[in-house]
Amino acid sequence: MSSTILLVDDEQDIVETLRYSLEREGYNTLSARSGAAAMSYLGQSHTPDLVLLDWMLPDMSGTEVCRNLRMVERTRRIPVIMVSARSEEIDRVVGFELGADDYVTKPFSVRELLLRIKAILRRRAADTASASEDAHFDRLRVDFEGHQVWIDEQRVALTALEFRLLATLIARRGRVQTRDMLLNDVWGVQVDVTTRTVDTHVQRLRKKLGDAGNYIETLRGVGYRFLVPDGGSSSGE
């Protein structure tokens, strides 16, 4: 079945250009000219497989729409690509912290955007296929399907990007992941993101995990590895 992409943008020319290119690639498309219209689509029984979300909308910001998506169980796992003329690093950081899976600045290459969409949908399909029961690592418990993490009985609030980073490291536990590998598999096709971004997000993730952050081992000059001490790992697999 073809994936459905929701285009949320009040610039009709952009919507028409994207609709033509996406449908030529075999995707189904929906469009919304405002945040309220987007939320209406997202409240229906059949949600889209991905949302292309403009930052500047006439009634509310795209960041508010993204925040609302991540607060609702049935929409929190829908991939979101934020599209914006705002190109400062702080704007990208805000977008990612609110749960966007990717951030594209205007003007953009339609060809590059299509590659990003394909990469995210491919990664989502792989994540869905590999999702299993909860994984337990001593005090750390991870619900892959529900995108939730606990330390003991305390739920840890992670952004969508932080959870994807943790899930990737856990899925490949015991194996070294270079920064370039993590950039490709967690961030996807991102020409404006550097390996320094990986270090920053690993530091934030470790801080949120507390003592369990020590499971993420740094291999200086190489990358990271999820490594649980002997006897500290039990999985629902």
Element layout with pairings:
Blueprint: E1 4-8, H1 12-24, E2 28-32, H2 35-42, E3 50-54, H3 62-71, E4 80-84, H4 89-97, E5 102-105, H5 110-130, E6 135-137, E7 140-143, E8 148-151, E9 154-156, H6 160-171, E10 177-178, H7 179-187, H8 195-209, E11 216-219, E12 223-226, E13 233-235
Parallel strand pairs: 1-2, 1-3, 3-4, 4-5
Antiparallel strand pairs: 6-7, 6-13, 7-8, 8-9, 10-12, 11-12
Structural description of this entry:
There is one protein chain. This protein has 237 residues and is an alpha/beta fold. Helices cover 41% and strands 22% of the residues. It has helices at 12-24, 35-42, 62-71, 89-97, 110-130, 160-171, 179-187, 195-209, and strands spanning 4-8, 28-32, 50-54, 80-84, 102-105, 135-137, 140-143, 148-151, 154-156, 177-178, 216-219, 223-226, 233-235. Strands 2-1-3-4-5 form a five-stranded parallel beta sheet, sandwiched between helices. Strands 9-8-7-6-13 form a five-stranded antiparallel beta sheet, with no helix packed on it. The chain has a three-stranded antiparallel beta sheet with strand order 10-12-11. The chain is globular and about 55 Å long. The mean pLDDT is 84.
